[in-house]
């Protein structure tokens, strides 16, 4: 009797792009209306194919003035005076709208951003809806936040969000601002503007009063003009540390509240007593989720020396099973890099790691012939002085080092200018708690990684920024207590 070995593989399972209903042209959303912007047209490209996806009409300086004026008018006349119970109804409607159009939003996000459809379907869109649901519950309970008997909205919030989680970052910023009684002028990244425009459609369908949320479209110069606009009462930015520094310098001395959520170089620390298979899954999720294009990615692996060889062998075997390819295929684990510029930056840092003496191991998974892709990469023999151990790579690249004692692990984990996230893998609860207290990171995960909840505050220290988003602390960032002075809003060119 002969046995036959079958080489099983996954058949393609593509999601239909038609479900995204992507239009040829998109417009900014100002004062409740989608209208042509006064800036030049911009084409957005699908990272999975490298082909044009849609044309976007960008916003000019006059559009910015109109948006800030509309937000001020809406805040003073409608949204601010409205009761919290009434505001919550709008937030609930938006949350339901996101849930109802979840499949469409997932497809749009994947086409525009390049991340796998199973991530947008199972994480990005549901979590965005959760943020609106969660903050809807706070809108009529502000007096119970612990900020005094009558916390008040700040006024008009200017917000700038990045390209790695376009829809989710929009929800993180917009939901607490609206729940607190503020109005919003927000600008998405120029490479990923589409999902927030679908969100704007959902808001319009929910009958959100005109001017409460305004979406401007454009590049970095528009973002700079927005965050420095004198008509704002609050600024929130998520993005690179370099841009965050510029914003902090620009707003220094203005008294305007600022929240910055910037880069990271998170450490995943694996002790010898950790459940190795569980830790392998956590490390993979920590650095290859969204292709590593995550500010809190666990891009540094610190593994105890006694189990390092065995753990790395298991890790490489697991990474070999990851499928890199078409983001629209439901079997894809690692999708596309967002842009050619980002791919070039990641590649340059990988080359630097090799030239500085680290050993690079790359997955053998074949890459698509078109689009922007990079093989999952693991560096060993790395030292703390190497660029791959110091700089945020923002791609599917893991740098590994070893340690012998918990104190050494803490010292190596804290040897970074960043301070956004960390993970600890051990069966001992006392060790996990002790490590969490010693690690200089805004979020420390215990035997897991990349777990988020709207009720949990998120943010960093040092060059990872300041302020918190989510939870009570995130709500506090958009509220003024009785003992805080109120800044007089500055008039805009279009008239406040």
Secondary-structure map:
Elements: E1 25-26, E2 29-30, E3 33-34, E4 41-46, E5 51-57, H1 61-79, H2 84-100, H3 102-113, H4 117-138, E6 152-153, E7 156-160, H5 166-179, E8 183-187, H6 194-205, E9 213-215, H7 220-227, E10 234-238, H8 241-251, E11 258-261, E12 267-270, H9 276-288, E13 300-304, H10 308-320, H11 340-355, E14 359-362, E15 377-380, H12 387-390, E16 397-403, H13 406-413, E17 421-425, H14 429-438, E18 443-446, E19 465-466, H15 471-476, E20 479-480
Parallel strand pairs: 1-5, 7-8, 7-10, 8-9, 10-11, 12-13, 12-17, 13-16, 15-16, 17-18
Antiparallel strand pairs: 2-3, 4-5, 6-20, 11-19, 14-15
Notable traits:
alpha/beta; 496 residues; disordered C terminus; 2 domains; six-stranded mixed β-sheet; Aldehyde Dehydrogenase, Chain A, domain 1; 37% helix; seven-stranded mixed β-sheet; 20 strands; Aldehyde Dehydrogenase, Chain A, domain 2; globular
